[in-house]
Amino acid sequence: MTEDNQVAPWDDIYRGDADEFTGPVPWNIGEPQPEIAGLIGEGKFRSDVLDAGCGHAETSLHLAAQGYTVVGLDLSPTAIAVAQAAVADRGLTTATYQVADISSFTGFDGRFSTIVDSTLFHSLPVDRRRDYLHAVARAAAPGASYYILVFAKGAFPEGEGPNPVTDDELREAVAEYWTIDEIRPAFIHALLGPEQAASWEHDEKGRAMLPAWLLSAHRD
Fold it and tell me: What are the structural domain ranges in the chain?
């Protein structure tokens, strides 16, 4: 989806007419990723919450339905319009969404007690990661929590897909700005076609489970 120094056409992707995808995007599963939902269920999230690279925003919409105050930012106007429509349809009052470049956004200094990155990190060009990490650290309140769900190396054939990471690569990048509490193996659940999905385990809903890392960190 992205390569170094190259930004994917995200609005084309969310409209469903990009060369890489036809139809719905595979990571839009209609609910929070199960790994993230597990953290929410354990009470790990505190308001205010930033949904970084929110896409269709099922994570923050789920949180808003539970009374959390959330902000979602995404580069794609199409994705943000879908999220805003969902807010109205569901009668939610504590969720707001804006079009923004997640690697350079401003205006939220020190606001968020929780920042969640659900399948964003691997979508960034590698040379934009440091700018992104700096931007979200600037938006974090003292003691904030940070969670990243990202594809692990080996999730895709070499040279295909986004920019997956090793655990050491993830640790080195994030540790510049955050104190890392844990990096553990995880899964990203995706709606893949039969041929693509054949290589992977599936969950109870028939979604492919691709190897990932789940990082937990905090600000001192």
Answer: 25-219
Q: Which two tokens mark 186? A: 């995880």
DSSP 155-203: SS-TTSSS--B-HHHHHHHHTTTSEEEEEEEEEEEE---HHHHTTSEE-
Phi, psi of 118 (to 5 degrees): -105, 95
What is the pTM for the complete model shown?
0.92
Low-confidence ranges of the chain (pLDDT < 70): 1-8, 11-24
Q: Take residue 21 and report the two structure tokens written for it.
A: 């995808």
Crossing angle for the helix pair 77-90 and 58-65, to the nearest 10 degrees? 20
Predicted local confidence at residue 7, as pLDDT: 45
The fold for domain 25-219 equals Rossmann fold (3.40.50)
Compute φ and ψ for 145, nearest 5 degrees: -105, 150
**What phi and psi values does residue 62 have, to the nearest 5 degrees?**
-60, -45
pLDDT at 21: 58
* Count of residues making up the chain: 220
pLDDT at 192: 83
Q: Tokens in use for 159?
A: 């040279």
How many whole angstroms separate alpha carbon 160 and alpha carbon 120? Answer: 17
Q: What is the pLDDT of residue 2?
A: 33
How many whole angstroms separate alpha carbon 23 and alpha carbon 201?
Answer: 23
Residue 157, Cβ density class (10 Å: 0-12 exposed, 13-18 middle, ≥19 buried) = exposed
Count of C-beta atoms within a 10 Å radius of residue 159: 6
